[in-house]
Amino acid sequence: MPSLVTAAAGAWERDPRSWRVTAAVEVRELALEQERTGESTLSLLNGFELRCDGQRVNLPMSAQRLLAFVALQERPVLRVYVAGSLWTDASEERAAASLRSSLWRLHRPGVRLVEALGAQLRLAPRVHVDIRQSLGLAQQLLRGTVDDETLTTADLELEGELLPDWYDDWVIFERERFRQLALHALEALAERQLLAGRLRQALASALAAVKVEPLRESAHRIVIRVHLAEGNGGEALRQYDLCSCLLRDRLGLEPSEQLEALAASLTH
Questions:
Q1: Please, are residues 59 and 47 in contact by the beta-carbon 8 Å criterion?
Q2: 40-125, which class in CATH?
């Protein structure tokens, strides 16, 4: 891409008499093009972080909430919907004014983060969001379409928690949606690795699911099955005892028949 100086010099060569106007227009157009093509990364897992061209950008909380909300949408959304979701206690006029103010603050870093399409808003195409990548990976794992190379690091992308210190209703809903999808994906990953005989990786994936939700019995059962495949009966019994105690102490529940069947296979 040519520099701003090159653009101005080119304008001079074409028409020296009107180079000031021409150069100003071309430099402005080039600056806008550079703004449109800047790369940005938005992290929402385990906390909010925005980086533009590799540099961390600090935003006021209202702008963070707007950017996170738009980034979590799968398609463009109406301005009135965004305003009503983010400023629930304000009047429609006041919410619209708060939205305009937050959009202005988002443009201060000098890159385009949110695009306005008439009455709709959407995330700019060159903003890369970590949770979108993790959601896509989870869907691939559930469909069984992930290649073997990706399998080796897939569990690391599914262990995060969406904006853990935020308590807005829309965040809580999206957090639980991601948590459930990630748990199912981690279990599917562990099952696939177990069937392939990659026991170390299977154990890591199953334990990652237990870490995300210690009260999830199905994840504990996979851990037990991996221990059994490795010939580690003592480890399997230990995991069974851990799961049984958690279910009884935290939830007042007894182990399922499936879990009891696994335990019975160890004692006979």
A1: no
A2: mainly alpha
Residue 30: is its pLDDT beyond 80? Answer: no
pLDDT category, 38, cuts 50, 70, 90? low
Which of these CATH numbers, 3.10.310.10, 3.40.50.12780, 3.40.50.620, 1.25.40.10, describes 130-267?
1.25.40.10
pLDDT in tens, 196-248: 999 999 999 999 999 999 999 999 999 999 999 999 999 999 999 999 999 99
142-167 pLDDT tens trace = 998 887 777 777 888 898 999 999 99
Residue 26 CB partners (closer than 8 Å, separation 6+): 7, 8, 10, 11
